[in-house]
Design brief:
Blueprint (H helix, E strand, L loop, with lengths): L3 E8 L2 H15 L3 E7 L18 E4 L10 H16 L3 E4 L2 H13 L4 E6 L10 H15 L4 E4 L2 H7 L9 E4 L15 H9 L7 E6 L8 H10 L5 E6 L5 H10 L6 E5 L4 H7 L2 E4 L8 H8 L4 E4 L4 H4 L6 E4 L4 H12 L2 H14 L5 H19 L2
Parallel strand pairs: 1-2, 1-4, 2-3, 4-5, 5-6, 6-7, 8-9, 8-11, 9-10, 11-12, 12-13
Helix pairs in contact: 1-14, 2-3, 6-9, 7-12
Length: about 375
Amino acid sequence: MAEKVLLITTTSGFVPQFEMNNVKYLQLLGYEIHYASNYYTPVYGKDNSRLDGTGIIQHQIDFVRSPFRLSNIKVLVELTKLMKEEQFALIHCHTPMGGVLGRLAAWLSKSSVVMYTAHGFHFYQGAPFINQLLYKTMEWMLAHMTDVLVTINQEDYQSALKFKLKKGGAIFYVPGIGVDCKRFSINENKRYEIRSQHQLKSDDFVLITCGELIKRKNHETILKALTYIKDYQVKLILCGSGVLEQEIRQKIRDYGLEEQIIMIGYCYNIPEYLKAADCFVFPSYQEGLPVALMEAMASGLPVICSRIRGNVDLIVPEEGGFLVEPRDIEGIANFILKLKENYELRKQMGLFNAEWIQKFDVEVVNRKMRDIYQFAIAKVKK
């Protein structure tokens, strides 16, 4: 009988969106892959159909995102029971609550080797004091239950080095989950197809932003910036779905931006939409190492983004784009106009980004993750 690996995420959709290369590698090694998640709250799509035919065995766990819900006790009990019954050789946790409850359950069930990939610690430079107090303390405690801790940006890696893991454990840095740069080298004709589909004019300056419609992504700052430059033929393609969709639609109406913004929901053909744009705008409050930003760079777009953890790992200021404070509405508006009025600058920055992002290509990440899994597997076999 094949040994089993358990992947844990709070919401379903995370594994098919970000982890399938790792799944395929583990399956190639002969492991049976199980996936514990809340399948009633899919993200990165409207359902769980992308898991069909993957060979992944699914386990419904009623995760919630908030650490302050009493229902987390039930989740912990369910996970502990699952781990005791299945006897997983390796447990790999993702997402904040998946990382907390997954590692606690692994400790309670006396499970074997436990990994956690931190896609962005909740304590970071500029975070509220309560984040530093609560989440950093929690992570310090959970590190003692962790064999392998993977970080995806330099700030988190330096923070993680201060933690003490289980005996023989190790901390690793990988450059995110990787981006398939080849996927974004698509035919230039796609630019005209998408622009024509949405009735964009040849002299429209088209911005694009991609991400879940949640507060952390800070869409409102983009909307406010557009109110400064209504008369400059600037349009925005807004890709993404989420809990704030109706609120964002209302703000678009309130700001009188209906003619400037195209909302397309969750985007399944993102390379084509990126190719149709002239600039990527991304004023998030908090990121780990954002895939959306990496994809924009791979598409050869100049970038205007917030000066925060993760973003600063990717964007070289004045070379690939401009870094601003998340709430700097006027600064974003001014940089939009600067790029709109200077085609050569846009082209130069886009070419720089397309070359720079090769360091974060999925093949680079895959090689590093295979080495990390080999380290974890060696611990399993001890």
